[in-house]
Amino acid sequence: MNKGSLLSLDRLVVTYGAVRAVRDLSFAISPGECFGLVGESGSGKSTALRAIAGLAPIASGNVMLAGQTLMGPRDLHFHRRVQMVFQDPYGSLHPRQTIERQLMEPLRIQRFPDRPDRVRGVIRRVGLPESFLYRYPHQLSGGQRQRVAIARALLMEPDVLLLDEPTSALDVSVQAEILNLLMDLREERVLTYLLVSHDFGVIGTMCDRLLVMRHGLAVEEMSNADLRAGRATSAYARQLLEASRGYHPEALADVG
Amino acid sequence: MQDSPLVEIEDLRVTFKERSGSFDAVRGVSFSMGREKLGIVGESGSGKSLTGKALLGLVPGNAVVTAKKLAFDGHDILAATPREMRKLRGRRIGLVMQDPKYCLNPVKTVGYQIAESCKLASRVSSADAKVRVLETLRAVQINDPERVARAYPHELSGGMAQRVMMAMMVIGEPDLLIADEPTSALDVTVQLEVLALLDRLIAARGMGLIFISHDLRLVSQFCDRIVVMYAGRIVETLPAKDLSQATHAYTRGLLNCLPSLDRAAGTRLPTLQREAGWRT
To answer: Which residues form the ABC transporter domain (chain B) (predicted)?
Structure first.
C-alpha cells in the first residue's frame, strides 16, 4: 500500500452470514483527496464505508488510517479524526433532543473545552442561524437537517469525512447548496472525503478519483478526467455511465 | 376522442385543515390533457402528487378538494359517489406509486394480487384471470411468469416488484395511468428498463400518462409535455423538447443546479434563488 495515503483498505472482506457484502476491496486515499465510490444498490459501497467507521463486521483484510491498522471497536481518537454523514437526515438526528444538545454531546465525550462557542461557530459555518440550536429536528427541513448532520461531523475538526449519499434524500436545489458547502469546507479545512453516491453527476462534481463497484467487488478505478471523457474500460462501468445520461429510447434497444 | 380531453382540471385547490389554521397545498391548478404523456415536475411540497391523487379521489381525510372543474373523460370526479369512484379506479385510471414494496400486500402472492385487480376490473372467472395474469406478467417483460406469480413481494427485487405493480395496473386496461415517481426508488439501469417498458405499454394500449417526478431531465426525455409546479401552482407548461428554452426562472434554476459532467470539476453549483413572486 502507498505509504503516503491517509486512509486505505487492503483486501477488505465484509460478510453478513453467508452474504459477502464486500469482497477483496482495496484502495488508498491521499490526504486532501476526494475519493468516490459509485455503484447500484447491493454493490457494497455503503458497507465499505460502514466497515471503515467500525459499523460493519470485518471478516478479513485491513483498514488503515495514517499507516496504522485499525482493530476492534473504534476509539475516541478515531472519532476525532474520522466522522461520518449519513444519507437520511431524518434518521441520523435524535428526534427528541434539541440541536444544541445533540451537538454538545460529542464535545462532552471528547472533553473539548469551550463547548458552547464551538457549537455556535459550527452552526454558523454550515449556514444556519444560531436560533436553530434551540429547535428540534422535526422543526427543520431536510436540507437544514443535513446541515446539522454536517455540523456535528465538523465539530471534532476531523481529517476525514465519510459521506454516505449525503444528498440523495434532498431536492436538487438543496443538493446544490449542500454540495457547495461540502466543497467550501474541504478547501477551507483541507478535509479528505470518501463519498459514496450512485450519481455520476455528484461524483464528477466532487471527486478527484472514483471506484466503480458491483456485487461487493471493485470493477474499475477511474480519474475524474476519465469519467468526463467517458473512458471506461469495463463493460459494466460503460453501461452505468450510459444509463446515467438518462432515458433515450433509441440507445436503449439493447438494454430493454 | 380528440374533441373531448381525457382529463380536464380547472382551478384545482387542495386545502389541509389543521388545528393551527388551514394550509393550501394546491392553489389553483388548471390543465387538460388527452392521450399523451404529461409530466408534472416539482420539488417536494410543490403539490404535484396531491394533484394526481385529487384526480383519483385519494387525498387524505383532512384535506378539502375544490375545483371549478375536475373531470376525467366527462365524469365529474368531485360529484362522483364512492361507488362511482371505485369503478373508475383500476378500470379507467391506474396508479403506480414510488415504492412497490409498500404497495403490495406482503402476505399474498403476487399472482393472487394481480388476479384480484383483474377480477375487480372485469367479470372474469378465476381460471381466465389466471391466464390473463400470466399474459400480463409476460407483457411487463417478466421471463418466468409462473414462478413470479407464485412469489411473495419480499422475494422480488425492486425492479421486478415495480413491473408487478405495472402489471396490476395495466391488467384492468385503464385509459389513464398516473405514475407517481415510478422509478425513483430504482437503480439507474433498472430505471431505464422500467421506463422503456412503461413507454411500450402506453403506446400499445393508447393510454394517457401523468408522470409525476422531481427529475426534470428524466421527464423531459420521457414525456411529451411538462407542467412545472412550485408551491402549489403551475409556473410553466411547455413541450418537453423545448425544455432548454424554458423561460420561467424557477425552471431554469432547477435545470442549472443539477450536477453535471459538463461543468468543470470542483466548480460551485449555481443555487436556486427563490423569489417571492413565484408563489403568486
So the answer is: 7-256
